[in-house]
Amino acid sequence: MSKNSVLKVALAGNPNSGKSSLFNQLTGLNQKVGNFPGVTVDKYTGQCRLPGGILVEITDLPGCYSLYPRSLDEQVVSNLLLNPEHPEYPDVVVIVADASNLKRNLFLFTQIHDLGVPVILALNMVDIAENKGISIKSAVLAKTLKVPVVNINGRTGSGLDLLKQQLADGVLPVSGVVTDVLLYAKKQIQFTRELLLCKSDYLAYLINQQLDVLNFIDPVKKAQIKSFLEKEGIDKEKWQSRETTDRYSFIHKLTTQCIEQNHTTGKDLTKSIDKIFTHKIFGYIIFAALLFMVFQAIFTWAIAPMDWIDLRFSQLSAFTAAQLPEGVLNNLLSEGILPGVAGVVIFIPQIAILFAFISILEETGYMARVVFLMDRILRPFGLNGRSVVPLVSGVACAIPAIMATRSIGNWRERLITIFVTPLMSCSARLPVYTILISLMIPDIYLWGILGIQGLTLLAMYALGLCMAILSAWIMSKLVHTGEKSIFIMELPTYKMPRWKNVGYTMYEKSSTFVIEAGKIILAISIILWVLASYGPGDKMHQAEEIVAEQLAIQNRPMDNFDAEVAAFRLENSYAGIFGKSIEPAIAPLGFDWKIGIALITSFAAREVFVGTMATIYSIESGDDDRGTIRSRMREDKDSETGKPRYTIPVSLSLLIFYAFALQCMSTIAVVYRETKGWKWPLIQLLYLTLLAYGSSLLVFQTLNSFY
Amino acid sequence: MLSRTAAELKPGENAIISGFNSDFIYLKLMEMGCLPGETIRLNFTAPLGDPISYDIAGYNLSLRKSEAACILLQS
User: Fold this and answer.
1) CA dist A42 to A39, A62, A359, A553, B14, Å?
2) What is the pLDDT of residue A3?
3) Residues on B contacting A at a C-beta cutoff of 8 Å
4) Could you tell me which residue, A280 or B30, shows the higher pLDDT?
5) Beta carbons of A488 and B33 less than 8 Å apart
6) Residue A171 to residues A7, A19, A92, A175, A558, Cα–Cα distance (Å)
């Protein structure tokens, strides 16, 4: 191998085999997340150098149990490994196997082995196996399988040099097969092998098995294979069942030769912990307590960095405004783009903290217990135990949450989870909730400790959750697919989290969020800026004169002149005109045109509400924005009745509207991407808008009749 | 007599798998190591009795009750 060529290596293995730890150890921060062509599953690639200077490009494949996929994640593996024409097709596959659970891990190994691609078997967690009394003779294993076997430790990194050396030395193609599939369907396999020039019988056999889900086969040849299979007879299930039995009987023989099981006196720690964590009562109490702790951490720990980001960005905006020559570009940058970017960046602390916790819960193996505890409870609502992770993540941000639904294999359950996740109150709603609650609810403490405002906030989160569950139930009655729901899930042993992996997850999720959400919010903030900065007629140009004139007539002081001009401009801009034009539609909810503008501007992203309100109520930016907006809003009077504008019915109606409405372009975009079409994002938008409108209408009209 | 299924095991009870009574899910169960002849042991159940956690092939597998009911046991 020449020094300049790049060796392509794929890491494959069961979930929980420590594959990602090995990947992180090999590549360090030298990794990037991309997409596999045509599918939305994240592709993790990274680079490392071998002894001798050869550059290796490593792809971390999604964890899977076999080459027969049962979820979107797993489909990626077969679409890559069954397609030697694929640009990412590996030169070598490193199969990571959990030594403490070798039998099941070897199953995937034998399948990949039989494809005919050069393989290395990396035995991970040998130390855990030894604690369980299992000792593995890897030399025997290597000799029988005729492939290189390397003992590694993904946590400490030991054995990595051996693995790298093995890759540098080169890996020969495998000779022979573990299971001869020709015995099951000789004619069918030979036909496909000749037609597609497959390099192994097993490859041709798997293409026959999965013809319908493989996306890379030429449609004409696909049809030829199909008609040949129909003619010659096709019994996929029988073949697969024979294959599975044959593979396991090979594995059984192999492991009796190379595994020694000694008796251990050590107690099974996982079993003892499970007695508490999956207890009928304590299990739920612990889960609730953990959730509470996580939220508490998200909201308290994130405050300082969020304030810091807020401050830096407003300084940057001010700096840009002062430094650049005055003009359109200056305004666009300092009033449109920078605040737009700030609106994204400000959520990084909360997202990073949330994903740190989620990653710890996953690393330790606790998340699988939550899925186990919640499956039966969520099932009647058309959800799956695996829906818990997206729903919990939705409290930070719906975008990564919706991406996390990919682990749900059943399309219907995944769709329902995607559909209801935006109802979980995300962190963008928090500033809106905070300001409206403080406007409406007195700052009183019950028994000295329980703040009523805090309780109301908690109630808003509960409301979101209840509506999500209710909506899931409605969806489950309307959406039917013939597909069966499968649960079958491994409960991994408890482990200490690997902090490096936690760090990588935090980094990776935050950057994905910034890139995904950033692109859209940037575009929308430019559009909104244009709408809010320009208007028909001369009013925009003559704003200063008109406002000065009005102030003179009303005999009001000039000390807030700039802000009054800004408010006047907004009122007469295209955004303001839109706000006024929708007033008849939102009046039944108790909203006036000012709220109308805020609703329009916050369609792109909810948190824009506070900024828009600040502009409308002509507040000059200061350190204590929210306090000032609050007092301005509180003082605002209805121009007809002279009573305060933000009565409890109005505030509550607005609060409910923000809780339910899908005011987030990034969510719409991510749903489009994940469901591969406009159908579901549009249905979701329509449903959530109607739900928000209807609920607000109900709340306002009911309360207002008493008020 | 109908044979017992894995869903009817008691906590801590062992049995040997004899076969399956479903034509859909058994392939997945087999891939995960639930093969005829293997010993299966019920570990514990979730609070509502469903899903159920089993020891099989040296690891901990959890199945819904309906999935476990597809696994037939030797009497």
Assistant:
1) 9, 9, 16, 63, 41
2) 46
3) 23-33, 35, 43-44, 46-51, 53, 57-64, 67
4) B30
5) no
6) 11, 20, 7, 12, 81
Task: List the beta bridge partners of residue A92.
Answer: A9
Q: List CB contacts (< 8 A) between B62 and chain A.
A: 368, 372, 487-491
Domains observed in chain A: 6-169 (3.40.50.300), 181-261 (no CATH), 283-429+447-478 (no CATH), 522-706 (no CATH)
> In this structure, how many other beta carbons lie within 10 angstroms of the beta carbon of residue A634?
13
- pLDDT interval class at B65 (50, 70, 90): very high
Query: In terms of CA atoms, which chain B residue is nearest residue A134?
Result: B58
Q: State residue A72's pLDDT score.
A: 75
Q: What is the value of ipTM here, to two decimals?
A: 0.94
DSSP-based three-state secondary structure for A42: strand
How far is the C-alpha of A78 from the C-alpha of A95, rounded, in Å? 14
**A278–B35: do the CB atoms touch at under 8 Å?**
no
Q: Is the pLDDT at A466 greater than 90, yes or no?
A: yes
- Two tokens at A586? 């939102």
CB–CB of A17/A23 below 8 Å? no
- Helix (H) or strand (E) holding A518, with range, is helix A499-533
Q: Where are the beta strands (DSSP E) in A119-268?
A: 119-124, 134-136, 149-151, 259-261
Q: Are A609 and A602 in contact (CB under 8 A)?
A: yes
Compare all CA atoms of chain A with the CA of B52 and give the residue at the minimum distance. A372
Encoded tokens for A629: 């907006």
Contacts of A492 in chain B (CB under 8 A): 60
> What is the number of domains present in chain B?
1
> Of A623, A603, A624, A621, which Cα lies nearest the Cα of A611?
A621
Strand partners, B60: B55
Q: What count of residues does chain A have? A: 707
The predicted pLDDT at position A33 comes to 61
pLDDT in tens, A28-73: 866 666 555 445 556 788 899 998 889 999 999 988 999 998 877 7
Tell me how far apart the alpha carbons of residues A257 and A140 are, in angstroms, rounded to a whole number: 8
pLDDT over 70 (residue A373)? yes
Q: Token pair of A666, please?
A: 């990034």
- B69 falls within a domain: yes
DSSP three-state, residue A187: helix
CA distance A592 to chain B (A): 50
Hey, what are A416's tokens? Answer: 């329902």
pLDDT digit string (tens) for A646-684?
Answer: 888 998 999 999 999 998 887 888 898 888 889 999 999
Give the per-residue pLDDT at B23.
Answer: 73
B45 in a domain, yes or no?
no
Return the sign of the alpha-carbon dihedral for residues A353, A356, A359, A365.
Answer: negative
Pick from A348, A196, A374, A354: nearest CA to A277: A374
Rounded to an integer, what distance in angstroms lies between the CA atom of residue A52 and that of residue A50? 6
For A681, the token pair is 């994002």
Q: A134-136 and A259-261: which strand pairing?
A: antiparallel
Helices of type H across A302-440: 303-323, 328-331, 338-345, 348-364, 366-378, 388-393, 398-403, 411-420, 429-440
pLDDT-above-90 percentage for chain A: 35
